[in-house]
What we know:
Layout: H1 2-29, E1 36-40, H2 55-60, E2 64-70, E3 77-83, H3 90-106, H4 122-134
Antiparallel strand pairs: 1-3, 2-3
Helix pairs in contact: 1-4
Amino acid sequence: MRTAAKAGILAGVGAAAIALGRRLQAASDSRDDHWLAVTVNCSPDQLTPAESLPEPLARLRDRVELRVRPAAGDKGTELLARPDDESVSRSDLRVALRQAKSLIETGLVIHPDAPGSAHPGPAGRLLGAVVGRAQKEGRL
């Protein structure tokens, strides 16, 4: 009985996580006019000429609107972007911003949790499925 109750709870949590993910995706798709931003640990001079952008953003440069400005309190540089046409999704742009930040700060793209650290049981498989869906957006 205990195992069945645990399985039922896990199934309910999994269904709720999937429903919440779909609701968040629908909400983010409706806010296409909002800017996506990352704060990068470098001076604005390093990113000012458009030719100095890292490859993930340089690839999208013709299809996105980009802004570079000093971050608040002299804490680096804010790199802002939003899609200019419908061929660029917000999730692809978010991935490009995250990769560009990683390249600027470390020189390579850092991937989180590779290989995964979840237990291979039912809860670990559920967590793996949720994290797999969240990787493009960078959040659960």
